[in-house]
Amino acid sequence: MTIRSFRLSDHVTVNHLLEEVLPQKCYTETKTALARQLSWDSELVLVAEEQDEIVGLIIGTIDNDSGFYYRLAVDPDYQRKGIGKSLIHSLEHKFKQRDVTKIMVAVDEHNQSLLPFFDAVGVVERWLSAGRRALSIVG
């Protein structure tokens, strides 16, 4: 498996992955957030490849001095194989290279069910968007 930054040529494949994995409302919101993040800093959007096929994606952003895991998506056929964990740790490395002071999960109605997974891989900080301002990539 290879983890790398998003490339423009990944657009169609990533869009298909998101459409397959996410509920419709989440897919629509994520497409908008992905476009914004790519226009600001595409290095914080990572894909996982297995035999030249994109099987996972993580979207991150930095707001002030904090790094946020915004959305994680892994092809159902590749779940429970360490891909999500590898994406999280690769993005964490990018955040640390940029001297962020805190790394958190941006929690919304769509990814709340992933919190036990984030806890299991060692991400314990949570940022509850419902109770605070929205991240700039989501409006």
Short description:
By secondary structure, this protein is of the alpha/beta class.
Structural features, described:
This protein has 139 residues and is of the alpha/beta class. The chain has a single domain, classed as Aminopeptidase. It has four helices and six strands. Strands 1-2-3-4-5-6 form a six-stranded mixed sheet. Helix 1 packs antiparallel against helix 2. It is globular, with a radius of gyration of 14 Å. The C terminus is likely disordered.
| Topology pattern, helix = H, strand = E | EHHEEEHEHE
The low-confidence parts are: 126-139
Termini separation: 33 Å
Number of strands: 6
Index terms:
alpha/beta; 139 residues; 36% helix; single chain; globular; disordered C terminus; 6-stranded mixed β-sheet; Aminopeptidase
Question: Topology, pairings included?
Answer:
Elements: E1 2-5, H1 11-21, H2 24-41, E2 45-50, E3 53-63, E4 66-74, H3 83-97, E5 102-107, H4 115-120, E6 126-128
Parallel strand pairs: 4-5, 5-6
Antiparallel strand pairs: 1-2, 2-3, 3-4
Helix pairs in contact: 1-2
